[in-house]
TrEMBL record:
It comes from Geotalea daltonii (strain DSM 22248 / JCM 15807 / FRC-32). Keywords: Lipid biosynthesis, Lipid metabolism, Membrane, Phospholipid biosynthesis, Phospholipid metabolism, Transferase, Transmembrane, Transmembrane helix. This is CDP-diacylglycerol--serine O-phosphatidyltransferase. The gene is pssA-1. It holds the Pfam family CDP-OH_P_transf. Its EC number is 2.7.8.8. The lineage of its organism: Bacteria, Pseudomonadati, Thermodesulfobacteriota, Desulfuromonadia, Geobacterales. It catalyses: a CDP-1,2-diacyl-sn-glycerol + L-serine = a 1,2-diacyl-sn-glycero-3-phospho-L-serine + CMP + H(+).
Length: 255
C-alpha cells in the first residue's frame, strides 16, 4: 500500500496495458470468428510485452506493481486468449478432449508465470526455465496464420493443433532452458558480418513473413529440447563427478 500511495510508473505499465488490450481484442475477434485477426493481435501483444520490461529497465522504472501487473496481463494475453482461439478454431470438434486441451494450455501458462515470479531472483537471467508464455502463444498465432496462408484442410488442422497444444503445455512447465535474449553482450559492439546477416534476415522475413515467423517461433520452441538432449551427456558426467566427490568426503564407516 505504501508503494501505491507514492504512485506508479506510467510508461512501462502503459505498454503492459497495451499488451492486455491486444490479448482481450484477440478474444473479441475469436468470438466474432475472425481467427486470422485474432492471431495477429497475439503477435501485437507479444511485441508490447517485450517492450514493457525493456522500457522499465532502460528508464529505471521497474517496480513490484509492474511485475504483478505484467504477470496478470500475460495470463490473459498468452494464456486465456490463445486457449480460446485454439478451442474455437480447431479443438471444438473434439468435444471434451478439445476444451480440456485448451484448458491445459491455460493452466500451464499460469503455472509457468507463477514459477517465473518465484524464481526470478534465483535463476540465471540469460536463460528461461520452461518455454516462455509469449513464445508459446506466438507459436499458436504463427500456426494459425500458416494454415490460412496455405489453405490446408480442416482435418489436418484439428489433429495438428491438438498435438501442438499438449507439446506447448509440456514445454511451459518443463525444466528445459531457453535463451532469454537478456544477455548484455548483445547490445555491445559486434562484428560487421552480424549486421549483414541481420539485414538479410529482415529481407527474407519481408519476402515471406508468415512462413518465416512460423520458422522462427518453431525454431525457438525446439531449441530448448534440442539443447537439453545435446547437453545431457555433459550434465550426466558432472552429476557423476559430484557424486564421487561426495563419496570421497564421506567419513569412514558412514553409509
Amino acid at each position: 500500500m505504501e508503494g501505491m500511495r507514492k504512485g506508479i510508473y506510467i510508461l512501462p505499465n502503459l505498454f503492459t496495458a497495451g499488451s492486455l488490450f491486444a490479448g482481450f481484442y484477440c478474444m473479441v475477434s475469436t468470438l466474432n470468428y475472425d481467427y486470422k485477426t485474432a492471431a495477429l493481435w497475439i503477435l501485437a501483444s507479444s511485441i508490447f510485452d517485450g517492450l514493457d520490461g525493456k522500457v522499465a529497465r532502460l528508464t529505471g522504472t521497474a517496480s513490484k506493481f509492474g511485475v504483478e501487473f505484467d504477470s496478470l496481463a500475460d495470463l490473459v494475453s498468452f494464456g486465456a486468449a490463445p486457449g480460446l482461439l485454439m478451442y474455437a478454431w480447431a479443438l471444438k470438434p473434439f468435444g471434451r478432449i478439445g476444451w480440456l486441451a485448451a484448458f491445459l494450455f491455460v493452466a500451464c501458462a499460469a503455472l509457468r508465470l507463477a514459477r517465473f515470479n518465484v524464481q526470478v531472483e534465483t535463476v540465471e537471467s540469460k536463460r528461461f526455465v520452461g518455454l516462455p508464455t509469449p513464445a508459446a502463444a506466438s507459436m499458436v498465432s504463427a500456426t494459425v496464420l500458416l494454415f490460412y496462408h496455405f489453405g490446408w484442410p480442416s482435418s489436418f488442422k484439428k489433429l495438428a493443433i491438438l498435438l501442438l497444444i499438449y507439446f506447448l503445455a509440456l514445454l511451459m512447465v518443463s525444466n528445459v532452458r531457453y535463451y532469454s535474449f537478456k544477455d548484455p553482450e548483445l547490445i555491445k559492439r559486434q562484428p560487421f558480418a552480424f549486421l549483414v546477416l541481420a539485414v538479410i534476415l529482415l529481407i527474407v522475413i519481408a519476402a515471406e513473413p508468415v512462413i518465416m515467423l512460423f520458422v522462427i517461433f518453431c525454431g525457438y520452441m525446439l531449441s530448448g529440447p534440442v539443447g537439453y538432449v545435446l547437453t545431457l551427456p555433459r550434465r550426466l558426467r558432472l552429476k557423476r563427478a559430484m557424486h564421487r566427490g561426495h563419496e570421497e568426503l564421506r567419513p569412514p564407516g558412514k553409509k
